[in-house]
Protein 1
Amino acid sequence: MRGFELKVHILGVPYRIICNEAKLAEACEEEGLEAESTQGLHIAHDFETRTIYISPLLSPIQWVQTLFHEVLHAIGNITGHWRLAHSNKANEMFVDAIATGLTSFLLNKNVRKVIEKILSEEEEDSHEKNLAGD
Ligand SMILES: [Zn+2]
C-alpha cells in the first residue's frame, strides 16, 4: 500500500490519519516505542496535533482492525472512557475485541453497501436543507 494522509473528524474533533511507515517510525521514536512492533499509534497531546498513524505494511484486514483500534483510543481520549483511552493489557484486549469484531462485521459486503447507501441519503438530506437556506 502506498502512503497517504486523510483529514477526518471523530466526534467533531479534527484528526489526521497518516499511513506512512517513515512517519510512524518517527512518531514511535518520539513516544519511546519500538517501531518494529507498532502497527498503529494514537497521538493526542494537544488539539492541533491529534493524529492516528497506521503502518502501510499491514494486510488489508490488519489495516482496518488497526484503524478501528486507534479510532477507539481516540474516542476514549475525547469522551474520557478509561477502558478505551488508557493503555494496559486488559484494556488493549478490550479495544482489540471491538476492533476485530467491527472489522469482521464489515467484511460482509452487503453491510458496507447498506451503510454507504443509508449515509449517502443522510448527506443528500443535509444538502437539500442547505439549499433550502437553513
Ligand atoms: Zn492500543
Protein 2
Amino acid sequence: MKLLVTKLWFPYNVRTTLAGLFEIPQIQERFDEGFLYDGEMRPQDIKVCSGYWPANAVLDRLPESKKDVYLVLTSMDLKGDYGRIHGKGYNRKAIASNNSFLSGAKNNIFDPRDIDFQAMTFHELGHALGLSHHDNDSLNHCAMPLGSHSWSSLDKIRFCDECYNKIK
Ligand SMILES: [Zn+2]
Ligand SMILES: [Zn+2]
C-alpha cells in the first residue's frame, strides 16, 4: 500500500515531514510502497467559514481510492462537524494541519519530527483505514483513544494489537 500525499497551503518541506511520519514502524510496515508526493491541491468553490477550512469538503475533493490512502498536509485551520480540529480521516483519506504545532516568535517554525503532530496524523490515518476511538489501555498503548497520549519518541507511536490487526 502506498501513501499518496498532497498539500494545501503547506509552506514546509513535504519530504522531511513524511520522513518524520515514516519513523513510526507501523507506518513503514503498512505503507510498504512508501509515499508518493502528488503536488499541491487547489480545491475550488470551498466555502471557508471565519478562516477555518471545512475538512470534509477538502477530503471530498480527493479522488476515491480502493487500494491506497490519501494524506493532505496543510497549515490552514480546519473545521470539523462541531468546531476546530487538527485533522480528520475517513474513507481512505486523511488531512492533518500543523497549525497548532508551530513554534518560534512568529509561530512559523515547524519541526517535522514533532511527536504530537505525527501522532495526530497517525491517528487520522487510523480513521482513514477504518479504525475508531476506543478506551485507553495502559498495557497496550494505542493512538486511537481520544485524549492526549504522550509518546516518548516517534518510534514508540503505535496502534494496539487489536487495531493493527484490523488494518492488516
Ligand atoms: Zn479521532
Ligand atoms: Zn487501538
Protein 3
Amino acid sequence: MENDTILDLFSQTQIKQSERKAPLVIGTGATDTALSGPKVKYQKNGLKKKMLRRETKYIVIHCSATRPSQDIDATTIDNWHRARGFFKIGYAFVIKRDGTRETGRGIDEVMASNKGFNNVSVSICLIGGVTENDIKIAENNFTEEQLKSLDELLEELVEKYTSAHIIGHNQISIKDCPSFDVQSYLKGKSFSEKGDDISRDASPTKSITSEDEKKF
Ligand SMILES: [Zn+2]
C-alpha cells in the first residue's frame, strides 16, 4: 500500500511537471530567451523540492539539541536549516515542549537529517535534549507531553510504514542525538515490534541522493 501511495504521488508530481512545461512547448512560439532563465530554474527547484522516497526503512528520532527553556518550533528549525542551505526544514515532524506536533517537510519526501539514509527514512525532532547550562551536554529532558505525542506519532507511522524500524539518530551516526536510548524506550510499547536493533543491516544507501543530502 505504501509503495502504491508513493508511486501515485510520484506520478502526480510527474503530471504536474509536464503540465507546467506544456505552455512552453505548445505555446505561442515565444523565443527561448523570453521563457528560459528563471522559469527553467523554478522547474528544476520544483522537482527537487518534491523529491519523494521510494521506500521507508527507518523512522528516525532526533532532538533539536536546544535548552529545555527554549520553546522553539518547526518554523525556527526551518529558518535554521534554510540558513544552512537546505530547501526547508530537514525533518518531517517536530514535537514542541508542550507536546504539540508540527509538520515539517512532506512525510514522503527525501529527508535532510539522516546522512546516508535520507532517501529511506522519515524524521521526527523532539525539541530539547541538552542541559540548560551547557548545550554541549546531552540530557534526556523531554516532557511527558512530548513523549505522549511521540508515542501517538510513532503508532501512526508504524501503521503507515509497516516494515520500518524505529531508531535514534545515534544508531546511524556518531552523535548523542536524540539524547536517550530509543531501543530501551521502545521496550514494552505496543507499536514497537517493528523497532529493533538495526546494526545487522544498517549501511548508508548510496543509490539516490538529493541536493539536501549532499549539503547535510
Ligand atoms: Zn539528530
Protein 4
Amino acid sequence: MTHLALSFLLSFALAGIPASPVFLHHPSQQRQPGARQGKFDSAKAYSYLVKQTQFGPRDPGSTAHERCLKFLREELGKYADVVVPQAFSYAVPKWKRVQLTNLLASFNTRATNRLFISAHWDTRPWADQDPEKKNWTKPIVGANDGASGVAIILELARQLRQFPPAVGVDLVLFDGEDLGTSGFGGSFSIGAQHFAKNRPPGFNPRFGINIDMVGDRNLEIEREQNSERLAPEIQNLIFSTARRLMLPGFIDSPGNEITDDHLPLNDAGIPTVDLIDFKYPDGSNKYWHTMADTPDKCSAESLGVIGTLLLEIIYTQQ
Ligand SMILES: [Zn+2]
C-alpha cells in the first residue's frame, strides 16, 4: 500500500480467533560450520511476482485471494520448518466482511536470537489513484504493491531451506494491508494490527524489516521517517550493509513518512523498519494504486537488490 501518514493509528477491536493448528513440515536444521550462505536468485523471485499476478487482483473476498493463499501456504510449506496461518474476519467499513489470513513461516525454530522479514500479500480492492474515474472501484493487480515483497520472501524461504541460518528467521505475510481509506492510518494494516495484538506463541524477534513496493524497475529506497524514529539502529544496519555491498537503488537520505505494516510491530515493542520505494516510478508516484501497477513496471534486478541485502543481514547476524 501505503500512504503518507499524518494520523495516529486507531485502535481496532478485532475479534481474536485462535490460529489454526501448526503444521510441522521439516525438523529444524543446524547451520553447518563453513556452510555457504544462500545466493538470492532474482529470476526466480521475479517468476514468483508474475505467478501471483496471474491469479489476478488478490483483494480480500475474491477467488484469486483464496487461490493465492493456498499457493503461498504450499510454497512456504516446502521450505519452512513450520507454517502457521492466522485467520480472522474483519468488517471493512462501508464495504463488506472479509476473511483475512496472515501466514507465519519460521526457520531454525530452536534459536532464541531471531529476526523477522514481512510483506503484505493482499492487493488493494480499489484503483482509487487511477487517472480514469471508471477504474476507481476496480481492484489492482498489485505487481509492485503486494506481489514484489512476497516474491522476495518466497525466494528467501527457498534459500533459507538450502542454507540454514545461524539465527532464527520468521517470514510473515500480512493480509489486509490495503483495505484502508486515505487519511485514516488506522484503516490500513489490518492484518499486521491483528498479528501484533495476537502474537503467535514463540514469535519474539529482536527486530524486523517490512518490505513493500520494492519491485520498481527504477529502485529508489530512502530512509523512511517513521523507521528512522522508531528503529534507527536497524535503519543504519540496512544502509551500512547496502553501502558495503555497493547495492544500487539505496539513497542514504531522508524519505517520506509512511504508514505501513511496520507501525503495529513497533507499537508492540519490536523495532521494525519499512523498506519502501514510494516513488513509483519516480516522484510522480503515478503507478501507485492504479491499474498500471503491472509486472512490466517491475524488474528482477530490483527484487535481487533487496533480496541480496536481506540475505546478507540474515547471514551476518550472530
Ligand atoms: Zn497500497
